[in-house]
Design brief:
The protein is mostly helical. It has one domain (3-189). Helix content is 59%, strand content 4%. It is built from seven helices and three strands, in the order αααααββαβα. It has helices at residues 3-26, 35-55, 60-77, 82-97, 103-116, 148-154, 176-189; strands at residues 127-129, 136-138, 163-164. Strand 1 and strand 2 (136-138) form a beta hairpin. The protein is globular, with a radius of gyration of 17 Å.
Length: 193
Amino acid sequence: MNAALAAELVALIARDDDTRAQLVADGTLHEGYHPAMEAVHRANAVRLRDLVDANGWPGRAQVGAEAASAAWRIVQHAIGEPAFLRAMLPLLAEAAARGDAEPGEVAMLDDRIRVFEGRLQRYGTQYDWSRDGEALELMIGVEEPDTVDERRAAVGLPPLAWRRPPPPGERPPSDPAAHARVAEAWARAVGWR
């Protein structure tokens, strides 16, 4: 196992988690893509890209389960880097196929990419605030909804919940409709659509 690489990946995602926690605490996390959060996501993406170029995908055999999941989360959070997410998906899928990554993580990354591209999800893993700001709702929708729970079970995910409560302590955007408009404009501006 590459202990130094594992420690670096865990430290990178810890920085992400710390920044997110600060923005949740001050109530600004969901008021657009906060510049502090974006800076962490972009810096982490640059570093992970370099690490993958040098070492290949950091799977469980190479860095352990915690750091392998940290690598996936770095990719999942690098939403301002469409080419990066698209390039990492097949590497993560290959790792999962050999038992070196979680199949559910592949499903979540695939859904994340699809949502940002404006397409239906396969697994129903991506949520955003409802228009009333009371809950999180499935973004865009899911293809073949009658069989989504079968697809989810195949990758180790529980049955789909179309609407769910927000994480504890998180407040909705002050204007959910504006939040949705800003998100759509942002997706176009960074090249998702």
